[in-house]
Amino acid sequence: MLLEREILVLQCSSGLRVLGNLHANWTLIRYKCLEAAGQYLAHSTASVGILDCSGAEQPDPKLESWLDSYKGIFWVAVLSKCQLARKEWQLFVATHCYDYHTIPISEEKLFITIGRAYGMTSLKNNLNLPFHRGQVIGGHDSFKKILRQLHRHSGGGLTLYGESGTGKRLLAKTWANIKGFRFLELNTKSHDNELDDYVSKLGGIFKESVNDPYCFYINNVELLSKYMQNHICSLISNDSCNASHCDFVFCCGVDFEEIEGVGLFSPEFLILLKKNWLVLPPLRERGQDKLVLAKHYLYKISREQKKRLLGFSHDAEQAILKYDWLGNVTELIEKVMLGVSACEDNYLSAELMGLEDERALHEYTNLSLLEAREEAEALAIKRALNLVSGRPGQAAELLGISRASLYRLITRYGIRR
User: Fold this and answer.
1) Which CATH architecture has domain 5-127?
2) Which of 48, 348, 364, 372 is most buried, by CB atoms within 10 Å?
């Protein structure tokens, strides 16, 4: 009987092999070397793999970096119950894996999971679902609406409007990647004597794009000369820009209601800009997305800096949710990067991110005595635990309460030790 599928098994430790090869319709292709496994994936159509981590002490940073390059693979982790009880392995599985199984392995159950993973890859491929990879992250209704509109876009130019730092370029680049377009950013600040040469080159790229599709991204479109505006309109009106092989994404800093009165655009180009107009919401209006994005960049930046942070402290999470984020996602990334660089603990605090003052400001505006008392209690407990390196007995003595009362309050306020 011919085997239906090959499954990559990446042996991540020197422990015993926990998997046999007992299933009639599958064959296991085993690798220990990441480079060799990468070569195998580069020349195969595999979309599901098994990570045998059962003998490893800690998640390997090299492995995590390697897995970041293969986000299109549905990984199923194999590890022990002791490993799974530890925060660093929970974080590893949640970040990189589709599912997990603990040893001793039931191969029958494992291959049911593998079958479901293959089913999910087939379903997503058939539906051509976008934005399940890369850094386009968000579950807020206003942001999901933007993703749905992008998915339905069928060509003819697209305009993104939003505050600085909302991720317009990243969104455009990810959309181009999903559509299979090469991403090309056009210069809006070319001098007049350079425009003729620039237009000539642009026309040549358009001719090539029949076989090699392009997404032309223009930031600060209000700086685009009317000469270039008219040339782009001419290309589109002459059917040079076919939706199947090229498209334009414009980023505009002028509000939709004001765009006609600013006098920066030719009438034809104004019609093009307003045709498919999407407004990206600022980060402060995206609710829990602030924390979701912060956690994503915390794990990403901590791995880049060869650190293993497990999350944010309670005060940091509250500060992230309350902060106004006038610089949007760009400011969020900068704050997380600042904190990770200075952090020597497992959890990143608001103080290290430069958000301590913002959190305190919100505390002083809280007029509920009950909430103010609870926040003060939680802050006192966290400071006491920090002073005694997390030892609850000594912290209880500092606070003047019993150890049982301290445990009760730790549970009530969700404080990490």
Assistant:
1) 3-Layer(aba) Sandwich (3.40)
2) 348
